[in-house]
Structures are given as C-alpha cells and as structure tokens.
Amino acid sequence: MRDSRKIILFVFMFAAAFAGRAQDLHFSQYFHAPLLVNPANTGFNPDYDFRIGGNYRNQWANLGNPYKTMSVWGDTKLFTDRFEDGWLGVGASILKDAAGSGSLTSTGAYASIAYHQMLGYNSLLSGGFGLGYVTKRIDITKLTFDNQWNGKFFDFTLPTNEPFSSNQVSYLDLQMGLNYAYFASENAYFNAGFSVTHINTPRESFFDATVSDNRLDRRYTAFLNGNFKIQDLWIVNPNIYVSKMGNVWETVLGLNANRDLSGDGSQQFVLGLYYRHKDALIPMVGYQVNDLKITVNYDATISGLGSLNGTRGAYELSIVKSGIFPSNAGRLVKCPTVRF
Under DSSP, is residue 142 helix (H, G, I), strand (E, B) or coil? Predict the structure, then answer.
C-alpha cells in the first residue's frame, strides 16, 4: 500500500511539473521571502540599511524522497542621502528546487531594483523590476514510460519513444511590481502590493518546439498586511496573500504576533497561524533577538492529499538578519514605523 501511494504521488508531482498551469516555487512564509513575492519589496525596510535571509522547505518527506526548496536573498538601500524623500533598493536572490529523487531540479538567479518615494509623511509608494535566469534539468534515465512495459515489468533497456529534445531548459524571466504603504501612526501600519511574474511568458519544455511550445502563464500576486501595536507588549501582523497563474489560484491568510520579552524589543517571541485555502493549516513559531529572526512553520495537509501523506505536508525554516551600516548609525528613518 505504501509503494502504491508513492507511485500515485510521483505521478501527481510529475504531471504538475510539466503542466503549463502549474504554480511556481513558493514558501508558506512568503512574508520572509519578500523579493520572491514582489520586486517592489527590494529595499523596503525603513528601519534598516540591509537585509539578508534564507528559506528552506521540505515537503512530503514521509513519501520517499521529498521536494526540497531553498533560497538565499539579500537587499540594501542606496542613495538615501541623495534623495530627500526617497531611496533606491537593489537586491538579489537564488532559488533551488529538487523534486523527488532528483529527477527534476530548478535553479534560478534573480536581480531586482526598486525605487521608494515618500508621499507626504505618512505614505510610501514603491515600484520595482526584476530579471531572472532560470535553468531546469531532468534525469530522463530515472523515468519510466508506457513503451518500456514488457507485459511483466518496466524494462529500462527499451526505448521510451518520447520526443525529448534535451534534458535541460533555460530562460529569462521578467517581473515587476508596485507597493503602497500607509503609516497611520506609531501603532498602526498598512501595506498592499501587486506584482506580475513571467511577463515575457518564457518557453519551458523539454520537448522539441514542433511537439510542445509550452509557455509559462503570467503569475499575478497581490497581498495586504498590517502591523498593530497592542499595549506595548504585542505587535500583531495580519496577512492575506492571493496568487493566480493560469487557472490555478493560491490564497493564504492568517496572522503572526511578536511578544516583547525584554521590555525594549531586543528579544521577542513569535507565534503565528495561517491557512492555505483547501490545502493546509500552518502554525508558526519563532524567536527574534536584536536584528536576527528565526521562524519555523509546519504545513498540516487538510486536502484530499492528506490520505496519501498522513496530513504531513511540509516544514519550513526561515532566517532573516537586518542591519545598519556603521556610517548611518543614528540617522533618522524617512518614515514612521511600528516597533517596540
């Protein structure tokens, strides 16, 4: 029974990888992968000069070889002393995904740039652009096809008769986005954004173009969040994230909250709970000390796939470090923020 479940899940994953309407790589902690969500997030960190972060996701580990998705990213602000009411942000990220036993891998390197302009004292408008280079590889020798069934078992020596033209495909990927932030007070903040990925609808197919000219659908992503300080002890951060690619929708909503443990915000305990529509419940826990935040979440599957994976979907680890350059120590930020 366990082997049959693995076969069913492999078929599901392999079909998703080749379907033109399949979703991109993603993290449940999307708010800790800001450059992946929207290039306008590049340098959008009013309290600090730079950020560096890492994300790791392990999915369906109880069904053989799991999906493993990881990323490292960083961004920084530039020209804060040249623009009176704005600044420039530049950043980069590297993404890697290994599906199953390594039959399908994806590696992407992205660079992004954004400009942030204050509109008065309480509003900030940001626009960003990103360019990526993505390579996907597949080990065809690890796959079996119907033509290799000899009536008793799959014979790997038989030809597949599949029209593969290459085991690797590479393409450029364009993305752009907008953000708007409203700083209502020192205790309340709102942020909304919208982005488009795969603007150039790149071709992604291991088959010859005469057989398949499969192109990635544009991906549209919107988010809305806020920060609210409560009695100087909690900062509550509700979030909603919606993404559409082809006919596939993904909606994640929930909140996380930081509890001040030290009285000055230098040590904080993080709790969160999110829900991915028709897929998973996602509890999160973490700890922040000074400018370093570490959070872990677990995806508990509630969809029909739960009968195959025993409701055990995925776990994620996120690490984010923010900092201020020594030359900017003591410099006032250009917009108010919600903090302890």
Answer: helix
